[in-house]
Input
Amino acid sequence: MEIKELTRAEEQLMQILWQLKKGFVKDVMAYLPEPKPAYNTVSTFIRILEAKGFVSYNIKGKSHEYYPIVSKEQYKSFAADKLMSGYFDNSVKRMLSFFVKKEKIDMHEADEIIELIEKLKKK
Output
């Protein structure tokens, strides 16, 4: 299955569904910040996520209980690959250099990255 890119609104709803693991539209609505969109708007976006292959549902009475079928880890991998290929020519070094230059990595994180690299060297 090919993963498609999500819009900001779709990704926001997926973040909620990943957290909930499953839920009805009203459950998703409870996690949205104010001002909340209309119920029908959220319902429409969730149906779009279903059409894109991100969620499925179980019928519970007259309602649909939605659940993710693309994991957060799968989408994270897709998004990271897209970022790497689109902006850093598939170079981890270029991406890491970018974040270091922008001071987005603190010393503790830098130490953890060095530890990970050292472990990788030993394999």
